[in-house]
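Dear colleagues,

For the upcoming journal club I promised to circulate an example of a predicted protein-ligand complex. I picked one with S-adenosylmethionine because it came up in last month's discussion. The inputs are reproduced below in full, followed by the predicted structure.
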Amino acid sequence: MQTTPDLANLPSPAACVQAVREWLSERPEQPLAYVHSFGCQLNVADGEKLSGILMEMGFGFTDDIEKASLILYNTCAVRENAEDRVLGTLGSIKRLKRDNPSLIICVTGCMTAQQQVADKIHTSYKHVDIVLGTSAVSRLAQMLYAHMHGLRYAEDTQVYMDIPEGQVSVRESRFKASVPIMFGCNNFCTYCIVPYVRGRERSRRPEAIIAEVQQLVADGYKEIMLLGQNVNSYGKDLADGMDFPSLLRALDKIEGDYWIRFMSSHPKDATPGMMDAILECSHLAKHLHLPVQSGSDAVLDRMNRRYTVEAYLEKVRYIRTRDPEFSLTSDLIVGFPDETAEDFEGTLALMREVRYDNVYAFIYSKRTGTKAAVMPDGTPDAEKSERMQRLLALQRDISVENNRRFLGRSMRVLADGESRKRPGMLTGRSSENMLVEFAGDAALIGSFVNVKITETHNGLVTGILI
Ligand code: SAM
Ligand code: SF4
Ligand code: F3S
């Protein structure tokens, strides 16, 4: 009789990959996996590694969920609507399991790193076979091995502090690549679930990062996105003194025609050294995403952001003194618990002063387990929505005015796709991360082109190929 394996005593991940591969090879046709990542680019990068593990096991891939033998949702927990979307999606695929009982359904990522969510899935979504948290890359092969040996439900929500290296990624793009440089977060902003689901900060070894970027550039990748929840605290846990600016300068030495971008930077750790590196390194894109969250000192304090509006503006002035048009973008939270009308006016005032090229604004969402979840909040939802509309309208005006600076200029653009709205037009991003549209042949996608800007709009400039 077959016994179900003990999850604490499974063979190594490599041995499990091999065993599952042999098991799958007995099937008459190659099994296909449907993999979808929600959330931020770090989660998408994890999803690409999970696809890499599935590929090593012998899976092919499909975008048609009906044809899949394995469905993997890599989830996000940052706001309530992100979680609701995943639960809605899980409900909608129940019929697939009913029609095909051998279908394997896995849920991984930030949402299922919360034990209460894993419990809910176990009890209310019985068609799910495997639940993993944010250490899914370390554990997926072993969970599939356990499933193959008859374990009806396999779960491991623990955050492992190891950094698996040498993992194959099935990358979504052939010219843009994400490279996580660190994992986890130590900041505990009071609204944010991320430190609870991704654990403490840990940096990858610099030589592993440099080798990966060298290989990507050699393979023809044109844009390298360095990722971490707070990239500018990179290296604080490493013994050899490599910090984020030194990593940027080391990467900049790699020869080739490519750009480096990164996100996200916490303003408290955005040093002059980091800004100097951006301005001085030729491969670094001239854009900085510096999420301020609020323009009120009282709110920033309750958010535990550990900077004041003035300290933030000081950093903005540093970079703008050296490049007056330097492109900045931000994240903003509207309606943090007990945000007053005056606090909100502070956010609008800060936006008028910084003049961001773009902002990502979110209405505060209560996350169970965070400190802000138990803070009193007397602001009605309708008031929060109205503030959000005012904020977006202001940003629209600023973006329209800011974008006029590009009129008549020639911009270097990485062409990245075909315009969905205007057939025949291509889209791309400039060094400043500006969205640029121009008429061109689809064969240009994935290469750098020069575009002369003839029209500017909100969030978009258009031009002609030079
Ligand atoms: N680590 C990055 C940082 O500090 O800038 C970004 C982390 S988070 C994934 C991306 C953005 O989501 C945050 O900058 C914040 O604006 C927003 N966010 C996080 N928690 C939120 C919450 N509970 N409600 C609304 N927005 C939230
Ligand atoms: Fe969340 Fe703050 Fe960490 Fe960003 S820095 S992930 S907002 S706790
Ligand atoms: Fe979401 Fe996790 Fe990223 S909560 S935003 S997927 S780090």
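Two points we might discuss: The CA atoms of residues 215 and 242 lie 21 Å apart. The chain has a mean pLDDT of 95.

See you all on Thursday,
B. R.
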